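Changelog-adjacent note: as of this version, every example in the card shows the full chain rather than a window. The one below runs 287 residues end to end.
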Amino acid sequence: MHEHIILDLCRITRDATQVLNDVPLAIDELRHFSRAGGRTVVEVTNRGLGRDPLALRTVARETGLNVVMGCGWYREPFYDRSVYERTTNEIASEIVADITEGVDGTGIRAGIIGEIGADLHFVSPAEERVLRAAARAHQRTGTTITTHGVRSPVGLAQLDILEDEGIELRRVIIGHCDFYPHPDYHEAVARRGAYVQFDSIGRGFIEWDVRQRLDWVMRLVQKGYLRQILLSHDVCMKPHLRTYGGQGYDFVLSGFVPLLQQAGLDREQIHTLTVENPRRALTGATD
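Full-length structure tokens:
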């Protein structure tokens, strides 16, 4: 539910490991996911991050996977000047066009709004404009919003802004909840009705990190929030790929699901986490 296949963070971070632009390698890496039973990848690279709709189409065709492409603007260090020169409604119209017409004349349409981010522990004025634009684009298209926020409870501020725009929060995914290691925060997001996304599972494969995420998932399940949990890896660097020694795109299915089973989840609960929750999150279905 939160991955990157083609991505370039390097222009801001100056870290060459944060460039993913090898299409044959991406195809090979994603075949591991397909062999593990995966069928759909939500690819949240959007404007300013090296998004490549044509490359994603090639990946989808060669792997047989559904690839859901993101749109909108990421977080402030990655904004183009045009974000500051346009109104909220103009940015919203750009997002709507990516969803309804296709990106930059390719005819390839986005299927999720995001990832829409906050760079620090607060939402900056420019980031608020983009969040409000995302909300207005959602109102016009019905497309789900997925967010970015790390090492702080900034997801709650994001929910405040989206709710102020009239969004049903069940159509919002708060990303990177596992980067803020406080179960009270995870539960606060769930109480608001949004999806709690743990999306760095197995990325560094430090056993303690994996066990911690397992504990957070089980806590939410025990609190009654099974239907609001989403799982992913957020592959965004070469070292996350199997080729470079990482766990790749399949660890949730091949490594984490067995741990959930050992912790006591049954087949139906696993199906809810890995199939039904993503379906509802993407489509807005309530059943």
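Structural remarks: The beta strands are 7-8, 19-20, 40-43, 66-71, 112-117, 145-148, 172-174, 195-198, 229-231.
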